[in-house]
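User: Just a sanity check before I run the rest of the batch. Below are the C-alpha coordinates for the first item. I only need the designed sequence back.
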Protein backbone atom coordinates (compact mmCIF):
# COMPACT_ATOMS: atom_id res chain seq x y z
CA UNK A 1 0.00 0.00 0.00
CA UNK A 2 1.37 3.39 -0.93
CA UNK A 3 1.49 6.12 1.69
CA UNK A 4 -0.80 8.27 -0.46
CA UNK A 5 -3.57 5.66 -0.36
CA UNK A 6 -4.10 6.14 3.39
CA UNK A 7 -6.59 8.80 4.45
CA UNK A 8 -5.88 10.78 7.62
CA UNK A 9 -8.92 9.37 9.42
CA UNK A 10 -7.93 5.78 8.50
CA UNK A 11 -4.37 5.89 9.82
CA UNK A 12 -5.07 5.29 13.53
CA UNK A 13 -7.39 2.41 12.66
CA UNK A 14 -4.93 0.82 10.21
CA UNK A 15 -1.73 1.49 12.18
CA UNK A 16 -1.74 -1.83 14.09
CA UNK A 17 -1.97 -3.79 10.83
CA UNK A 18 0.39 -1.70 8.73
CA UNK A 19 3.44 -2.18 10.92
CA UNK A 20 6.09 -2.32 8.20
CA UNK A 21 7.46 0.58 6.17
CA UNK A 22 9.21 0.08 2.83
CA UNK A 23 11.68 2.89 2.15
CA UNK A 24 13.05 2.77 -1.40
CA UNK A 25 16.57 4.01 -2.10
CA UNK A 26 17.12 4.79 -5.79
CA UNK A 27 20.85 5.41 -5.40
CA UNK A 28 21.25 8.18 -7.97
CA UNK A 29 24.30 10.41 -7.67
CA UNK A 30 23.43 13.08 -10.24
CA UNK A 31 25.75 11.80 -12.95
CA UNK A 32 23.00 9.82 -14.69
CA UNK A 33 21.65 10.74 -18.09
CA UNK A 34 17.85 10.94 -18.37
CA UNK A 35 17.84 7.44 -19.86
CA UNK A 36 19.98 6.07 -17.01
CA UNK A 37 17.78 7.76 -14.40
CA UNK A 38 14.69 6.26 -16.02
CA UNK A 39 16.29 2.81 -16.04
CA UNK A 40 17.23 3.16 -12.35
CA UNK A 41 13.62 3.99 -11.46
CA UNK A 42 12.30 1.09 -13.54
CA UNK A 43 14.72 -1.28 -11.82
CA UNK A 44 13.66 0.03 -8.42
CA UNK A 45 10.01 -0.48 -9.33
CA UNK A 46 10.73 -4.08 -10.32
CA UNK A 47 12.45 -4.98 -7.06
CA UNK A 48 9.77 -3.13 -5.04
CA UNK A 49 7.10 -5.28 -6.68
CA UNK A 50 8.62 -8.24 -4.82
CA UNK A 51 7.47 -6.63 -1.56
CA UNK A 52 4.53 -4.41 -2.46
CA UNK A 53 2.42 -6.99 -4.25
CA UNK A 54 2.54 -9.96 -1.86
CA UNK A 55 2.52 -7.89 1.35
CA UNK A 56 0.05 -5.14 0.40
CA UNK A 57 -2.03 -5.46 3.57
CA UNK A 58 0.90 -5.03 5.96
CA UNK A 59 3.53 -2.85 4.25
CA UNK A 60 3.33 0.88 3.55
CA UNK A 61 5.63 2.19 0.83
CA UNK A 62 7.03 5.67 1.45
CA UNK A 63 8.48 8.02 -1.20
CA UNK A 64 11.91 7.02 -2.49
CA UNK A 65 15.15 8.65 -1.46
CA UNK A 66 16.52 9.22 -4.94
CA UNK A 67 19.96 10.74 -4.38
CA UNK A 68 22.48 9.23 -2.00
CA UNK A 69 26.22 9.26 -1.78
CA UNK A 70 28.78 7.18 0.07
CA UNK A 71 29.28 10.11 2.41
CA UNK A 72 28.56 9.23 6.06
CA UNK A 73 26.21 12.21 6.31
CA UNK A 74 23.96 10.59 3.69
CA UNK A 75 23.90 7.38 5.71
CA UNK A 76 23.10 9.42 8.80
CA UNK A 77 20.21 11.05 6.96
CA UNK A 78 18.71 7.67 6.01
CA UNK A 79 19.21 6.57 9.63
CA UNK A 80 17.27 9.65 10.76
CA UNK A 81 14.45 8.86 8.33
CA UNK A 82 14.24 5.33 9.71
CA UNK A 83 14.09 6.61 13.29
CA UNK A 84 11.38 9.11 12.39
CA UNK A 85 9.33 6.42 10.64
CA UNK A 86 9.60 4.20 13.71
CA UNK A 87 8.40 7.22 15.68
CA UNK A 88 5.31 7.24 13.46
CA UNK A 89 4.52 3.76 14.71
CA UNK A 90 6.18 1.45 12.21
CA UNK A 91 7.67 -1.55 13.96
CA UNK A 92 9.79 -2.62 10.98
CA UNK A 93 11.68 -0.58 8.40
CA UNK A 94 12.73 -2.30 5.18
CA UNK A 95 15.16 -0.46 2.93
CA UNK A 96 15.15 -1.54 -0.69
CA UNK A 97 17.34 -0.70 -3.64
CA UNK A 98 17.93 -2.00 -7.14
CA UNK A 99 21.40 -0.49 -7.27
CA UNK A 100 24.25 -2.86 -6.56
CA UNK A 101 26.50 -1.97 -3.60
CA UNK A 102 24.19 0.72 -2.22
CA UNK A 103 23.32 -1.02 1.07
CA UNK A 104 25.15 0.04 4.21
CA UNK A 105 24.88 -0.90 7.87
CA UNK A 106 22.12 0.90 9.75
CA UNK A 107 20.88 -0.07 13.18
CA UNK A 108 17.57 1.71 12.60
CA UNK A 109 16.67 -0.39 9.55
CA UNK A 110 15.49 -3.94 10.08
CA UNK A 111 16.19 -5.33 6.61
CA UNK A 112 17.87 -4.38 3.34
CA UNK A 113 16.60 -5.92 0.12
CA UNK A 114 19.19 -5.59 -2.62
CA UNK A 115 20.22 -7.18 -5.89
CA UNK A 116 22.39 -10.28 -5.77
CA UNK A 117 26.14 -9.98 -6.33
CA UNK A 118 25.62 -10.59 -10.06
CA UNK A 119 23.20 -7.64 -10.20
CA UNK A 120 19.96 -9.59 -10.51
CA UNK A 121 16.94 -9.05 -8.30
CA UNK A 122 16.51 -11.63 -5.57
CA UNK A 123 13.81 -14.19 -6.21
CA UNK A 124 10.30 -13.62 -4.94
CA UNK A 125 10.79 -16.66 -2.70
CA UNK A 126 13.96 -15.16 -1.17
CA UNK A 127 12.28 -11.85 -0.44
CA UNK A 128 9.21 -13.58 0.98
CA UNK A 129 11.41 -15.68 3.27
CA UNK A 130 13.47 -12.67 4.44
CA UNK A 131 10.38 -10.65 5.35
CA UNK A 132 8.59 -13.51 7.06
CA UNK A 133 11.76 -14.30 9.01
CA UNK A 134 12.00 -10.65 10.07
CA UNK A 135 8.43 -10.72 11.37
CA UNK A 136 8.81 -14.15 12.98
CA UNK A 137 12.15 -13.32 14.63
CA UNK A 138 10.86 -10.10 16.11
CA UNK A 139 7.57 -11.58 17.31
CA UNK A 140 9.14 -14.43 19.31
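Assistant: Here's the designed sequence for the first item:
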Amino acid sequence: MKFSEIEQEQWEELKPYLDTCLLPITGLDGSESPVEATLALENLRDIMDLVEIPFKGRVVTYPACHYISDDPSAHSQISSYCSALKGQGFKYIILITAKLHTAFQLNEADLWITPTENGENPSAEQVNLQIRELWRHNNS
